[in-house]
UniProtKB/TrEMBL annotation:
The keyword Transferase does not apply. The keyword Glycoprotein does not apply. Keywords: Membrane, Transmembrane, Transmembrane helix. The chain crosses the membrane at residues 12-29, 64-84, 91-113, 133-150, 170-191, 211-233, 254-284, 296-315. This is Uncharacterized protein.
Amino acid sequence: MSETRRLAWRKAALTFSFGYGLLRLYWAAGGRWGWTACDRTDPPTAVESATGCGADQVSDLPFLQGWGAVLLSGLLVATAVLAVRRPGRLVSVASGTAAVALVVLAFPAHLLFQVPAGLAGRPTDWRDVAGRLLLLTGGLLFGAVATARARCTHRLPEGPRAVPSWVRRWAYAACLVPVLGFSVPHALWLAGVPFGISAELIHAAEDDLSWTVGLSITLAPLAGGLLTLGLAQRWGQVFPHWLPVLGGHRVPRALALVPATVVALALIAYGLIGIWVVASALAAGTTRWSELAEGWLAAGTVLVFLAWGCCLAVATYGYRLVTVPVCAACDPSPAERRPVRAG
């Protein structure tokens, strides 16, 4: 990447940090435009969605949502300023940490279900959606700052590189886990088959979700799982020849690494938060083990997301090792100079 483009990413991250910090300062000072009081774990009604669950009636915000968030935004601004003025390895690490934090807070895995449901007509808290998308944008910007590096101007070997067997195994696992653990059960439930779930819950889901929303929820993990195979296949490194214009050209690493990393972090966060919520409900007595046993497959979805995220994270790391540019003329690091074995 040229120095001009790297500087552009840093300035974009700085602009985001200032803008997001001002928004948080506005909310902490009492403004409520764009802020929502709705509980993310409890789907709002149409009236609640329109008013942000009475956001205008909330006088004071909790510390973490108010002045605490302002302080954290200040850290983002400081990191972005250092990235522009004094870029270096330490700033890259700080930018990467900021990117991970913003992506996790954005909870993008929930957006995969929230946005299609809202577009299909289900009551949706669009203030919350906008906030998540804003955080996700900031995470991607800081991720670009953290991973930006000088582009090698020397000619690199053409064609795909050999993929180690362990990367293939993790990529196949990252494909099968969501298909077998999520898409197949949801397809059965969509067809009215009470497998791993009670018939009452099936009827409740039919009343709550339309056929369009149910189908999109079922197919989204299936499509994501199939795309994961690109991390271990030829077409994940070189575009297939039958594609117009792009056919035969090398796949940009960021095109695979950025979405895969974001989704992996989101899935892991979703799974961990889900486990914490279930454990808290069991400890508080609001949920009983018998209720979990009644819908054991639905309750196990959080474990599916966690396993999916872990498999995808390892496969993504393997893809990074396989596709890292190796050029002696650019004096790569010892880790990058080490050849990747195929077996």
